[in-house]
Each structure stands twice: as C-alpha cells, then as structure tokens.
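Lab notebook, bench 4. Continuing the backlog of folding jobs that were queued last week. Each job is logged with the same field layout so the records can be merged later without manual cleanup. Today's entry covers Cysteine synthase A, a 337-residue chain. Filled in by technician R.K.

JOB TYPE: sequence-to-structure
TARGET: Cysteine synthase A
LENGTH: 337
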Amino acid sequence: MMNAPVRTDTLNLIGNTPLVLLSGPSEAAGCEIWGKCEFANPGASVKDRAALWIVRDAEARGELKPGGTVVEGTAGNTGIGIALVANALGYKTIIVMPDNQSREKMDTLRALGAELVTVPPTKFADPNHFVHTSRRIAEDMDNAIWANQFDNVANRRAHIETTAPEIWDQLVGRVDGFTCAVGTGGTLAGVGLALKEKDENIRIALTDPHGAALYNYYAEGELKSEGSSVAEGIGQGRITANLEDAPIDTQFRISDEEGLDWVARLLREEGLCLGLSSGINVAGAVALGRQLVSEGRETPRIATILCDSGFRYLSTLYNADWLRQKDLPVFDWLGSS
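JOB STATUS: finished
OUTPUT FIELD FOLLOWS
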C-alpha cells in the first residue's frame, strides 16, 4: 500500500491533484479522456493555483505587506482560493461578486472570513462591473492589492509551472491533446504554452460555452458571441493578458444541455459530483478526442480540467426548480422535487 504524501505547509496542499481516466467519455470518444481533479485542492477548485501564485507574486514584488488586504472581483472560486491563501499568510480579503452566482459560493466566502461585496451582473464595459468595482476598492485602500486575475499573468504562470508539468508526468510524457473552457484564460494558455514546450504536436483546444466570444475569435478572427450559458466562472468576451499568445489549435462550442448531460453521466455512472464548467470541459475533450481519432491517431490521450465540486451548486444545477426556470433538463433522480 502506498503511503499518502506528507506536507509541512498547508499551502503545499495546493496542486499535485490526481488525474483520473473517465470511462464514459473515453468510450464515447474512442480514446482516453483524463480529468485533472482540481476539486481536490483545499478550496475545492482549480482557482486555488492562481490565487497562490498571485499572492506570492505580490509579496515578491513588495506590493503586499504584513497585515495587508487582497481585493478581487470573481465569480467565486478565485475568491475562495484567495481567502484561504490569505488566511494562511495573515492577510485580509475583500471579494466582489456578481449577485447571480450560486448561494453556496457566497456562503463559503463569508464562512472563510472574507468581506463579500455583491453587485448586479453587467457587461465588462460598464464601470460598475464586478472587476472594475474591485479595482476601485483596492485603489482606495492602504496596504491593499488588486489581484486582477484576468490580466495578471502570475495566474497563467501557476499553470505553466505546476498544472502542465503534473499532467505531463502523470501521463508519462504521452499527451495528445488538452482542452478546457476560458474564464481568465490562465489555465488554457498556461497549460497550452507549457505542453507545447514539451511536444509541439500536442493539440490545444478551446472549449467555449454559448454566450462567450472566443469560439468565434479563434475560428473567424472576430470577437462575437451567440446564445447564453448558465455556467459560472467561464465565458469570456475579450482577449485577456493571460490569453495573449495562447497556442490555440482548434475550438469547440458546447451547449449547457450537452455539458449537463456529462455532469449527469459522470455522477450517475462514475460517482463524480461536478459543476457545469467541468461538464462542458469533458464534452470538449470528447470532441477533441473524436477529432484526433478521425485523423488516424492511435488511441489518443486527452486531458481536461475537472474544475470544481458540484456541491458548490446545490441550489442551482442540482435543484429541479432552478433547472426548470432556466428551461434546462432536470436530472432524472431529482424527479418532481
């Protein structure tokens, strides 16, 4: 029996997450689909990595001093990661969120001791957007930093230095493709850049939800969106600093219904309770796997990100009334509840 790893610092619990072979998606794609279990991080999401790198980078540059405050605008998961990292390092946290995000994320942030500010959801061009609101709060405070996860490239460095090397090592240097959706762009760009350094033949794919503009940008060269998605934390309408020069080879657009189908199957068939962004990522991985199989690659290996736990969405994705209100299919085991 293998011994579990020992950590002498709680922040070292971030990263080194397991990689799991997903049976249903692998069968559907005709190849190997592997999921990086980012819900195993202390804050239960992939955003813990960016949170740690952003805070450590601010410390190294002398911008964050003892007793300081970290301020960020986020759909929730980055804020949760920042709150945990800040607690461990003796900082305070102020998080600005759109008020349409899941109740579980808001309750979690408050439980972690973060000061939570909620604002109405609006377009990025609006000065009251949650990102701009968080920036103004940080600028008006002493000894505070604005994390700026969208354009702070410490975010993607976390994935260049940790996520990509982990995937490469876990798959023993045989990776044929990687895909995930984009929120800030840090994960897709960081993993893509680092894997391309290992093997330029690895195919990097964007998996975009409806309502986001990047699918059309990489397909046609124009930032243009269509439709909408209820997925939290993904979907982008601009090229962030983290996305600049990202080595995107191909792109897929995935509907909420297709993503939810994989959320349901992974829970019912494989015992994984995940959020919608993970379902969308898995759907994209299946599409990428099928693409590579059709081109004659022998048993391709595709990796993707299982972003966070479904327990963060009990009031939304796993609530029959909420799904009906959004005109989305209700998981059959929820019945008429």
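OBSERVATION: Residues 54 and 60 are 10 Å apart (CA to CA).
SIGNED: R.K.
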